[in-house]
Amino acid sequence: MIIETDRLILRPFQLKDLSHLHLYRNDPLCARYQAWENTTIEELKFFIKENMTRSLDDQQIQIALAAKETDQLIGDIFITKKGHTITLGFTTSPLHQRKGYMLEALTAFIPYLQKRFPSSEIICLVHPGNHASEQLLKKLHFTKEEYIESFNSDVFVLKK
User: Fold this and answer.
1) Closest C-alpha to 88, from 107, 74, 73
2) Global confidence as pTM
3) Mean pLDDT of all residues in the chain?
4) Whole-angstrom Cα distance, residue 71 to residue 61?
């Protein structure tokens, strides 16, 4: 699966993404709203190889967001499916935040998901205090539905 936008390519991870993935996965600003583990070079190499073999038909996958001009990794989107619910997560490298990349990526990716899985509901879990993600989801027409204490997250649901 490859989706192109004006500035981005949404594609499977590649081993050449390792250094950039390691850089932002270990950045405290980037990790503060994430529950990441396994962020060593070897663990991330395994993560990349594992995701290279997955597709949207699998229960879980992460896809890479790369700059179209350079093919440099600038973030990723996490997708997990359970029943008729698709949960999205997303991360933008701190070097590339506040430039509209994730809005651009999700504006292209969400309709792709809706077409591929028309009966599925799309949700996002956002840690309280992550105002940038909340604002992004509001721009994409998600609504805040509830707080789930066990995940320490607010649930945002895409309006149909």
Assistant:
1) 107
2) 0.93
3) 93
4) 20
